[in-house]
Amino acid sequence: MDASGLHDPPAPTKPSPFFPRRHTVRFLAAFYALALVQGIRSLYYWEPSFLDLLVPIAFIIAFGWWAVVDASARGHPIPILARPWFFLFAWLLVPGYVIWSRGWWGVLWIVLSCFGWYALANATWLMLNIALGDQTWRAIRYP
User: Fold this and answer.
1) Per the count of CB atoms within 10 A, which of 3, 47, 113, 123 is most buried?
2) 102 domain-assigned
């Protein structure tokens, strides 16, 4: 019996690109929920709000947590001492990780996600602004 083959670690498996993992679905739900919150917040942008601090912090936590979990799920975990950097510099490191882990599909995923977030936030603001009957829309409708 050969002793060298007894303790070989299993080879990491890559997930199928067509099956979204649960952590990615949860991240996207949080990502787009923050777009809704930002759209609602934009209704009264001139008034100070605690959401101006909470939304960016929620983004940082969601981005950093997703990158750490996704790297572990793909079989290339981020070292423990490097994980805090993914929270401190999430705006730079997480898109870099997505491009590194997914290649050119990662660039497309980032662009579509940014466009979708911006569109949802603005659509939320616009629909609520029209539904609540803001003075701006009254001036446009009835000159």
Assistant:
1) 113
2) yes
Q: What would the two tokens of residue 60 be?
A: 């940082």
Does 137 map to a domain? no
Asked whether 129 and 42 are in contact (CB, 8 A), the reply is no
Consecutive 10-residue runs of the chain (143 residues): their mean pLDDT? 59 55 87 94 85 92 92 89 92 93 93 96 90 65 58
| Contacts of range 15-23, beta carbons closer than 8 Å, 24 or more positions apart | 15/73, 15/74, 17/102, 17/105, 21/70, 21/73, 23/66, 23/69, 23/70, 23/73
H or E segment and range at residue 12: none
Q: Look up the pTM and report it.
A: 0.73
State the total domains in the chain.
Answer: 1
